[in-house]
Amino acid sequence: MTAEPLLAILVGVLFATATYLMLRRSLVKLVIGLILLSNAANLLIFATSGLTRGAPPLIPEGMLTPDGVVADPLPQALILTAIVISFGVLAFAVVLIHRAYEVVGADDLDEMKDTDT
User: Is residue 101 part of a domain?
Assistant: First the structure.
């Protein structure tokens, strides 16, 4: 069995788990859901790019195309960009949740809703 069906199942499980955790009342579970969602998106990009082992995409001097099978650099660049963006979103969410907990004194979203006056 190849790795692509296993990665597809893993991506589906990660997206489902992330959605479930983000719909919970606890803010900590929301952050864990955000982490799982970003990892699932990265793994989805990785899986859709294909799992082929290849040489670096360098073109020898005097040729127009590289020799043999080469690795595609675009999925790698997309995943690195997604990692940076998800880290920034996660850092912002953690700081926002920490500040909300300091002000309200509760982790539950229903208790936070009761403080609106």
Answer: yes
Q: Write out the DSSP string of 105-117.
A: ---BHHHHHTT--
Q: Which domain holds residue 85?
A: 26-50+70-117
Cα gap 56→108, rounded to integer Å: 49
Interatomic CA distance for residues 114 and 89, integer angstroms: 26
Instruction: Express as a percent the part of the chain with pLDDT over 90.
Output: 41
Rounded Cα gap, residues 33 and 40, in angstroms:
10
3-class secondary structure, 57: coil
Contacts 24+ apart (CB under 8 A), 13-18: 14/39, 14/40, 14/43, 15/40
Specify the residue for token string 């290849």. 54
User: Coil, strand or helix: which one is 80?
Assistant: helix
Q: Which residues of the chain have pLDDT under 50?
A: none
The two three-digit tokens of residue 92, written as one number: 């912002």
